[in-house]
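Researcher: Next sequence.
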Amino acid sequence: MPAFSLTDAAFEGFRLTRERPRVVAAWAALYAVMSLVSAVLMVSTIGPESATLRATAQGVIPSDPAEAARQSRIVAPFLMIMLPLILVFWSVLTSAVYRAILQPEETGFGRLRFGADEIRMMGLIVILFLLSVPTLFVFRMSISLGAIVAATSGAAIGGLIPVAAFLAILAFWIRLSLAGPITYVNREIHVFRSWTLTKGHFWRLAAAYGLAIGLALVVMLLALVIFAAAALAFALSSGIPLGHVERIFQPDMSSIAAYFTPAQIFNQVFSAVLLVAVFVVLLSPAAIIHRKLTTVRNA
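Model: Next structure:
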């Protein structure tokens, strides 16, 4: 008998949303508040320079070193404030999802807390981020090596190198995927204990996560269709030409009042609901899989 059900794991996020809609709504509200704070900070620190910085983000790199340094100075205050806030936010939200699944008896608004659990989750997120740096480096090196091999021995052989590296890195992260629930339940930061717990379950883990990702993509697609229909209805009711519909949601960052148009507020709320729904679908499988595997292991 399998240690855990693929469908139970993949659909755990939907079950949680169906059975505890107020909890998920609280998470969406938290995300909306975070988006509001982010927008206010962005307008206050970056403001009119946003168009120039957006062009840089899209690959238009300044040729003048002085201009590049100036843009870095503009972005630095925003990042110095936002990065810690983002870390706290995702630690709180991640812990709340684990709490709702692994400790259903817990009560309170959205199961949201800020205490030792969240601080440990912050530490785990930082460690996992640091681990991602060498894996990204390895993947980029595999692309360069593949290009060299392709130039000397053929494109087919060279193309296999980055593919093999990607699959190896993916396998590595799948084996570490239970680090979050393990850290939350054991109240200690554990990264590689997941490696032991997931031994012998790799393919079922990969299938469960793959199914959850597929479901999340379906949710996003359906939501974007609804969003497009709402944007079209808004444009038609406002007399805006159809060719300019996409401009409705391009924020004016010259001031806070100019930024928060009705369309932008709708965009913020819609994004909060959608992204939290997707986050719950993607995060929940690890929690339910951890519970099943530890139950089997301790039986």
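Model: The chain has twelve helices and no strands. The chain has a mean pLDDT of 84.
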